[in-house]
Amino acid sequence: MSDAAALTVVLGGGGVGKTTTSAALGLAHARAGRRVLVVTVDPARRLADALGVEIGIEACRVEVGGTALHARMPDSRRSVDRFAEWLFEDPEALGRVRENGMYRELGNSLAGVHELISIAFVDHELGSGLYDEVVLDTAPSRHALEFLDYPARLGRMLEARTLEWVAGLARLAGAALDERPGERGLISWGKKRVGNLVSHIVGAQAIRDIAALFAEFVPVRGRWLSLVQSVERRMRSPDTRYVIVSGPSGSSLDDAAYLVDELRARSLSPSEILLNRAVDEIPPWLEALDEGAAPELGPALRAYRSEFLARALQTRIARERLADLASAKLPVRGLPALRTADPRAILEALATALVVPV
Amino acid sequence: MFSPKQQIVFVTGKGGVGKSTVSAALARAEADRGGQAQLVEFEGMHAAARALGSQAQGVRTVTVQYLDALADAIAGMVSSRLLARVIVRQRALERVMQAVPAVRELVALERVRTLAREMPGARVIVDLPATGHAVDWLRVVAAAERFLRTGPAAKMCRAILDEVLSPERSAIVVVSTAEPVVASETGELCERLRSELDRTPEIVIVNRVPRRPGPEELEAAARRAETDPRYAPLSDLLSADAATQSETALALAALRGIASARVAEVPDLFADPEPRSFAALVGVTT
Description:
The complex is a heterodimer of chains A (about 350) and B (about 290).
Chain A: E1 6-12, H1 18-31, E2 36-40, H2 46-51, E3 60-64, E4 67-72, H3 76-87, H4 91-99, H5 101-106, H6 113-127, E5 133-137, H7 141-157, H8 160-174, H9 185-202, H10 204-217, H11 221-236, E6 240-246, H12 250-265, E7 272-278, H13 284-288, H14 298-325, E8 332-336, H15 343-353
Parallel strand pairs in A: 1-5, 1-6, 2-4, 2-5, 6-7, 7-8
Antiparallel strand pairs in A: 3-4
Chain B: E1 8-13, H1 19-32, E2 36-42, H2 47-52, E3 59-64, H3 66-78, H4 81-89, H5 91-99, H6 103-118, E4 122-127, H7 134-148, H8 152-165, E5 170-177, H9 180-197, E6 203-209, H10 215-227, H11 232-259, E7 262-267, H12 278-282
Parallel strand pairs in B: 1-4, 1-5, 2-3, 2-4, 5-6, 6-7
Helix pairs in contact in B: 3-4, 3-6, 6-8, 7-8, 7-9, 9-11, 10-11
């Protein structure tokens, strides 16, 4: 465990700059001489855009201002297939899974599939010895929490009773909903009645497909559960930090508050909140300029002044709300609002603001 | 902007672009011109209802709870609410549901279908969850229908496809901001809508468009900065904003090509001292 990489999970609502902040955190660690991997579970291309390069499903080396780090992002369908290849070592089982109607049609739409795959990848990378620091950029807030819930959910799904239940449904569907000998009494009648209804609703073939897919998981249950358990250990490890990113807007503050609560409900605590795009004051140069001296620039000066004034007010309200939220000694760090069309310049400036001790 | 038959409007876009505000504004615009609207969001979301405010008359706000929607969907198929409740309470079923893909999306869209039927005269504005997976949300029904093939659930999927997802019945509004990165992601979203769903958004709303520095303003600032260094930061800020906007303009031009949809711009309220009414800006009233 001691040579495993430290994990930073970056959480936050949509549009707060989570991915850019994750990349900047990674860059800050890399500048401090650590070997870094930044992983995004968001299938959007923001990480590639933030780093200004093409990055793919494999970890690839990226150089930013002379500092190297590694980055990867998932391709959803290919990731699902690769994950299946990893899970089902037996080629015949893998073949059956690939032919399964549910896997074919819906495997890619599985709620939490990106999270699942990122768990698998991240766990692998953390133990690989290739990195000192792994930064995980999550999907916007509520999906991020699904990612935290997945280990327990998968464990429950593969409990013997759930599997038996599904297998029972498949038997019912296969046996044309016949009475099975040996099952008597009100409970078995009730179970059967519900089972019949579910088979009726979903259709016999679909039930058989679902049951067949579940059945394939039984032999690999140990493999899956050990992965899930090691991920859960990792999430609860003292080396794992949870960083929440917020913007100054009301809805992103709501998301941050929600995330703090949800983390605490899982006995996890965020290590800090980053307030991105903070404007703490009207820039002094803007205050100092005299409208009368350059009348042709008057409209621009007035527009920027009113804009910065509004943003500063919004930032002050945000800081007050975050201070209330962070009652339990949770540090809040402001990150500057940067106005440039160059994503790399933003990345480098944020990494400088996020400087970590060597 | 929408045809009268398009009773349902899906509002989508990247996280943080202002989808909920746009959804609320669309619902409000509908009510303001004497119509009725239902503003729909999903479990855990309340931003659209909040953006709408408590004063809006003629708008019904609905938050779809997935487990309730599941019970309703099952009740519609077994024609017994009591039985549906019994089924939904099965713990094993609940666990399977959590792991089986698409169930949430399906039952949520089924709820949208019944809402539309309940109030045929009211526009249903759906604020889709803030994720990069909006296309998956809409695509999942066809995939589920192919998987299920027969039975009441497959029939439900077909009803959703006909009554909710067909272009005759629903419109798609894509929300973006004027940041180049967001605009280019919006382009990708439109491309996926086209290639995976064969849909073109009815309108792309570009939110928070900042003030545009004019060329003479840029020149004037640069001239001042040459002789007086105090103007250098102003000149830099104007150039940075101009550069950002020309990149955004490129991304939006590409977007127009991909989406072949109307693109409406809404100014950044911080930068625009005289905010005009949203409805007028996007042309909802015409």
